[in-house]
Write a structure and sequence with these properties.
4-stranded antiparallel beta sheet; mainly beta; 4 helices
Length: about 525
Amino acid sequence: MSTDGSDERPLTRAELRALRAAEPAASAPAAHGTEADTPDVGRIAAERPTSGVSAPKADSSEPAPAPEADSPELGPPSAPDRRFTLALLSVLGVLAILAGVLGVVSLVQGPRLSAVQVDPAQAIESSGTRVILTANQTLDPIDAEQVSVQPAVPFTVDAAGRSIGVRFTVPLHDETTYTVSVAGVSAAGGGEPTALTTRFTTPASQIMLLQRDADGDDTIFLSDLSGEKAAPVFQHPRISDYRATGSRLVVAVEEDAGSRLIVMNRDGSDQRELKLPGEGYVSSVQVSDRAGLVGYSYSDRDLDETSGRASVLVTQPLSGAGEPRIATVGDAEVSVADWRFVPDSSSLLFIDFDGALSVEDPTTDAGAQPMGTAASILGVNRGTYTALVERADGSFIVLDLTDGTEQPLPPSDPDYGDAVGIEALPVGTLRHIVQRDEEGMPTGQAVVRVDEQGAAAVIAEVSGTDSILQTCASPSGQYVAVTTAPDLANNAYDDLLLPLPTTMHTELIDLVGDRTLPTLNGFDISWCRTAPLP
């Protein structure tokens, strides 16, 4: 091996020792005449390092590897090592400079959006949906006055860390682009304030509608508002009632042994039966989307004056995971004349057979809370926990369910007469009015929209021969569905437990825009929270 310095890498001390030990063996005559014969390695073996690593052949052109146990002193770095070190230092320097520049830019630009979460489809179905804006850095505290939503809707704000949550307290309109802006947003570490803005568009509404057929199966259809894309999702010879949530469909059907309650996905798939309290009949089916509950009025099939349960109020999970639970007042099961789920909660508002009005949350042990007496529940407002109630004396009130306070329902201007039914809107009410002649005979019916100031306008009316059976608003109050039975005197009734006219039409009305919507065959649109009364 050459030691004249022509190698690029200097030899270590261990390699020099191995080289000097090999030189005598290289100069001595071969034992059997040629260099190609195996050399005598006895002397090298005697000087073998204590690590046990063998020395190389004397004529090897490769340097011997350093013994593992030795810690030889290293010479100066080779040219490739120096080039690698310089390149590494250069890269680290550039990264440090970039980090500093980006830090300065971040301070100058202020916070920016890194993610947005929102479910537009759920936003048109229920109140309480949220849009969450996430910034690229921790933020200073955010005040609700910094947030704006266009088109305007009521909302609340909660913010922490890098996230700002905007919760809509009412459902949103369909096919509408909403802009959420947060002004004057500053990073917790300082820097220039900036505005965070996001936009999202809600989808078109989908509805369900029930059609009964005296000669075939009753059918629940899923459709757009035009009715042109209707598709059947569930069929049965006798569908008595149904309700829909954002993801599920609950159907009550009548059979010889009594009612069955079937829950499924909105497209009709994954059907499964819910257990009832016994063999009997189900009516007044309602759902709480927020709590995942179904509620209904239940009566035993074998019922007489001395035995059996009549119109008890039952709730149970839509998932089928829990047993049916019967509402009680004190320790006694209660029979109800009227009831409602309180929107955006799991609470029940009900009137028992004695006329007592109570509110109860079946998911707690607090028990029923008395709210006076009442003749009927006209509706419960979304997002405000207030109910429209007819008291036993015939007066109409707005009842605050959180503290029991009440105030009179404002009269309408002009005054179209007393309402026989009221549907709560996010702002104002819809009132079903029956017009009568001097002898008290009905001459016509109308649906009147009344705003918060009492200003009234007729949105639908029928002649004296027709009858309005059901009025339901879409979750946001954007649309209204008015179900009528034409020529009621000659419109035959079916033979279900709660019989209804065999011919019914549902007129769709746009309350916000000027869109012309169709009249559909069927009734009990999925916007309705309760079934029509016979």
